[in-house]
Design goal:
Blueprint: H1 2-38, E1 45-51, E2 53-76, E3 81-86, E4 93-94, E5 99-103, H2 106-135, H3 140-166, E6 168-170, E7 175-177, E8 187-188, E9 193-210, E10 222-227, E11 235-246, E12 252-260, E13 271-288, E14 300-306, E15 312-318, E16 320-325, E17 328-333, E18 340-344, E19 354-357
Parallel strand pairs: 1-19
Antiparallel strand pairs: 1-18, 2-9, 2-13, 3-5, 3-8, 4-7, 5-6, 7-9, 9-12, 10-11, 10-13, 11-12, 13-17, 14-15, 15-19, 16-17
Helix pairs in contact: 2-3
Length: about 375
């Protein structure tokens, strides 16, 4: 019995010794890991950088515009008639006064011949009355009646000639025609559309701006306009007219600019993006858009500083942003000119992280007016 108790005690002592040895080994391993963790330094993070530069930006405001012809009319007849000839083609360029359409005027010409015969008779009667009045053979009232009939005959001739003239439709100004709306032999009523005519050598660009910008607008200010149809072309012109009233519903004011339209490439009704350029320029501190970390609690950038031993460290700086233009954004506060900011890789950083700079694989330089190749 005693022998068995001694064996159990010996076994327990052996177990305790083994457990203690294992615990000592694990404690040594954990201590080594803690020591290694406390001395571990993460490797530097690769980033690309750019310098915050002071730039001159022209002051401008953007708007959405619509192309409007400087002169535009729908050619239509003032009098009824049958189309006898069409002297134009759809889309043709015409000069001022060019005949476009003639309507049948045979009835009016016959009436004109009759009216001319009546006028001749009235003229003869008037001369006879004037002679007879001089002799005292007729009264003054008879002479007045003869004069009235002569005037009435002349007015009838003038009215018929005006009607005949209106049956020859001419271009009121030089320009380009649209698509023909009538055919030969068609009977037209007054006001029936025949063809549209627009003057396109110059074109108006109409747009609206908020009333707050009214003090910055004046006739003669430069404007730039671009269209989706010709994205590589920039139309330059000047403000021609500023409306005399502000729209009560939108509180916007309508502005009309006049721009040359070489080749008549811009057509009325086209959508245009407009920039109104102010004469003065302003100094801004600009950084690439890619350097900004946008967040609800505040926008920030990472500035690269030189730390101890020549190492580079990233420092988060909160900034207030201004206007965005192209690939750049203006920084109104938080940065100074000459500071180096992280442009790519900022999302991997935290305040005080070590960085290495590699600018050999960065995208093209950020510019305020990018013009990428259209592929």
């Amino acid at each position: 019995m005693k022998k068995r108790a001694k064996m159990i005690a010996a076994s327990l002592i052996a177990v305790v010794v083994v457990v203690g040895a294992i615990g000592a080994v694990k404690a040594a391993q954990i201590g080594a890991m803690i020591e290694a963790g406390s001395s571990f330094v993460p490797p530097p993070i690769g980033v690309s950088t750019a310098e915050a530069e002071s730039s001159e930006w022209e002051s401008s405001s953007s708007a959405i515009g619509t192309a409007v012809a400087t002169q535009e009319v729908m050619i239509a007849s003032e009098v009824p008639g049958t189309v006898r000839s069409l002297r134009f083609d759809s889309g043709e360029e015409v000069r001022r006064g060019q005949v476009l359409v003639t309507l049948d005027s045979s009835t009016e010409r016959a009436q004109l011949a009759s009216a001319q015969a009546e006028a001749q008779l009235a003229a003869i009667n008037l001369r006879r009355m004037e002679e007879l009045v001089g002799r005292g053979a007729v009264s003054q009232s008879d002479l007045d009646t003869a004069r009235a009939r002569k005037a009435q005959a002349d007015a009838s001739i003038a009215g018929l000639r005006a009607t005949i003239a209106k049956k020859t439709l001419r271009a009121p100004f030089a320009g380009r025609l649209g698509i023909r709306e009538v055919d030969l032999g068609e009977v037209l009523q007054p006001g029936t559309p025949i063809v549209s005519l627009q003057s396109l050598s110059e074109i108006y660009v109409e747009f609206q701006v908020p009333e707050q910008t009214l003090s910055q607008l004046q006739v003669g200010l430069a404007v730039r306009a671009t269209s989706d149809a010709f994205p590589d072309e920039v139309l330059t012109g000047t403000i021609h007219t500023i409306d005399s009233r502000v729209d009560e519903a939108t509180r916007n004011i309508r502005v009309r600019a006049l721009v040359p339209n070489e080749g008549e490439r811009i057509r009325p009704g086209m959508f245009l993006e407009v920039d109104v350029v102010q004469p003065q320029v302003r100094q801004v501190l600009a950084v690439p858009n890619t350097s900004v970390l946008y967040a609800p609690y505040g926008d920030s950038v990472y500035v690269v500083d030189e730390g101890e031993g020549g190492t580079l460290q990233a420092r988060q700086v909160f900034v207030r942003l201004g206007e965005r233009r192209g690939d750049l954004v203006a920084v109104e506060s938080g940065l100074e000119a000459g500071q180096t900011v992280v442009t790519t890789g900022a999302f991997k950083l935290q305040n005080g992280a070590a960085v290495t700079v590699n600018n050999e694989v960065t995208p093209p330089d950020a510019v305020a007016d990018p013009n990428p190749e259209n592929r």
